[in-house]
Amino acid sequence: MFAPFGFAGQEFLLGQGRALYWPAERALLVADLHLEKASWFAQRGQMLPPYDSRDTLERLADAVRQTGARRVITLGDNFHDDAGALRLDAHCTGMLEALTRSLDWVWITGNHDEQLPRGFGGAILPELELGGIILRHEARPGETAPELSGHYHPKLRVNVRNRHIARPCAVRGRSGSGAERMILPAFGTLTGGMDAAAPEIRAALSPARAIEALMPARGQIARFPLWQAAA
């Protein structure tokens, strides 16, 4: 389920599956797929279930079907490492090739996959400006233009009835002039998370005057204030 909200003067929809849909551009945005993360750990002796890439790609295909997206833009760290594409099994390779053939696909590179292979189709870019919004992997401190990014894998951590709960979320910052920037949750299946209120995220969104976490809930966006500059 996707929930609507306004950002940088346009309507977006944030999904419970951690994808962001931009109706005006018919674009689905996802950050930090980290494909083949399990196989990377397996090479180093830490055995994890080898199904993370398949689950991530199946959820991505579902999000495309739900939204009717005609374009997919990834926001970096698409593979967990530069050799990750070589470790994809035949099923996942076929899924990815089918997706990139049927959609207008843009790979934005991240710090984990700066040498992204070109065999899967789609354009490979370090960043992209679309509709007046900058799309990049890592938020640039001091940026004054609207910006969408990933990298930090934000999670909202709350206590509910004496239970500690952590859920992926988006984090939006607003500057004193009203300019908005947002960090998307990690989409990949085996991605961990950083506390949405962490000082690293606050620094990345500077010069924000207010920062909040956004989560879809029952078709609406729940907002959780994280930080407010002193008056």
| DSSP summary, beta strand count | 17
* Spatial shape: globular
Structure annotation, total helices: 4
- What is the element string, with H for helices and E for strands? EEEEHHEHEEEEEEEEEEHEE
Stretches where pLDDT is under 50 for at least 5 consecutive residues are none
Straight-line N-to-C gap? 37 Å
Give the integer mean of the pLDDT values.
90
Give the helix/strand class.
alpha/beta
- Report the biggest beta sheet as strand number plus sense, adding barrel if it closes: 7 strands, mixed
List keywords for this structure.
single chain, 231 residues, alpha/beta, seven-stranded mixed sheet, 17 strands
Task: Provide a short characterization of the protein structure.
The protein is an alpha/beta fold. The protein contains four helices and 17 strands. It has helices at 37-43, 52-67, 90-102, 199-204, and strands at 2-7, 10-15, 20-22, 27-30, 71-75, 104-108, 123-125, 127-130, 133-136, 147-149, 154-160, 163-168, 170-175, 180-183, 194-195, 208-217, 220-228.
